[in-house]
Design brief:
about 180 residues; mainly beta; about 40% strand; Jelly Rolls
């Protein structure tokens, strides 16, 4: 497995070793020992699976209490994933990383606690799986506005995104409850 820091050093792009032949492919999407050797220690408690159509944008989500680290991968289609550093004490506070994830490459993204996360679908459909280190707690969920002008995220959208009511009502980072 190859692990590469993104422009946000704590957010890691993980390229697994994929073994393929005429039958298909195999790879380990999680191996606690291998990930610990690479510096990723996590105890996952929940797996999530979403399916979205082209133009759907989800995020930028995080939980302020019961904070979750996430291991994200795409099993069908392609997305552009965005991670924003929302740790007030970080030298990278307010900066973001944009990473393309595809079922074709099998790459995964490690999103640690202290970062908001979202993605938009760039293929006809996309199915995203992600493991979390704490349970979903809707009372602690927060959402930063996907198009906050202070963040300046360049989403690869051809038309206005398809948003949930929650995501449309996100708040700008300057008004968001963030991590210390």
């Amino acid at each position: 497995m190859k692990i590469t820091p993104t422009v946000l050093p704590e957010v890691l792009l993980i390229e697994p070793r994929v073994f393929g032949d005429a039958r298909g492919f195999f790879f380990e999407s999680w191996n606690e020992r291998a990930f610990q050797t690479a510096g990723i220690t996590a105890h996952f408690v929940q797996d999530n699976h979403s399916r979205s159509a082209v133009g759907v944008l989800r995020g930028l989500h995080y939980q302020i209490n019961q904070a979750q680290a996430k291991l994200v991968r795409v099993v069908a289609g392609e997305i552009v994933d965005v991670v924003v550093d929302i740790r007030k004490s970080s030298p990278n506070f307010g900066r973001h990383a944009v990473i393309r994830l595809s079922a074709d490459t099998h790459d995964m993204l490690w999103v640690p606690i202290g970062f908001a996360h979202g993605f938009c679908v760039t293929s006809e459909i996309a199915e995203v799986l992600y493991k979390t280190t704490d349970f979903y707690a809707p009372q602690h969920e927060r959402c930063i506005l996907w198009n906050d002008p202070d963040l300046g995220i360049q989403w690869p959208l051809q038309a206005p995104p398809v948003l949930s009511a929650k995501d449309a009502a996100g708040v700008p980072l300057r008004n968001a409850e963030v991590f210390a």
